[in-house]
Amino acid sequence: MKALRARYGGGPGHLLATLACFAIAAAAVVGWTQRPQDLHNVLLWFAGAILLHDLVFLPVYSLIDRFTISRLPQRAIGYVRVPLLIGLLVLAGTFPTVLGYGASSEHHASGIYEHGYLARWLLLCGALLALSALSYAARGRRVR
User: Fold this and answer.
1) Which residues lie closer than 8 Å to 77 by C-beta, 6 or more apart?
2) Alpha-helix runs per DSSP H in 53-76
3) Are the CB atoms for 97 and 79 separated by under 8 Å?
4) pTM of the model
């Protein structure tokens, strides 16, 4: 065990989790190569996503974070960052549905009209912020 930690730098659980992540990524790449006509679109999407994130979103949310940090007490920063990060990650994974971009495709594929996702996402963000505020208040009460 000590030899593994000395050589690898982490425990066996970390090594297994890392190998599982590589296996999932490899399965995804194998899936893409089984349909070569889609591989070009996937690579184009990745390039666009990387450029959009690095050139647009990273500066924007860094500025918002710095603005927020300067206005909050030090102990409250995590209570704001965590629910907003979770909400933004959910939005990043579901933004076409939340913003209604896939309504015609959804209806065509399933016969169901897509609606209410924006309200549900806003409700999720509100619930996360409320839960975080309750945690912050409980912590403040415990400290006193």
Assistant:
1) 68, 69
2) 58-71
3) no
4) 0.63
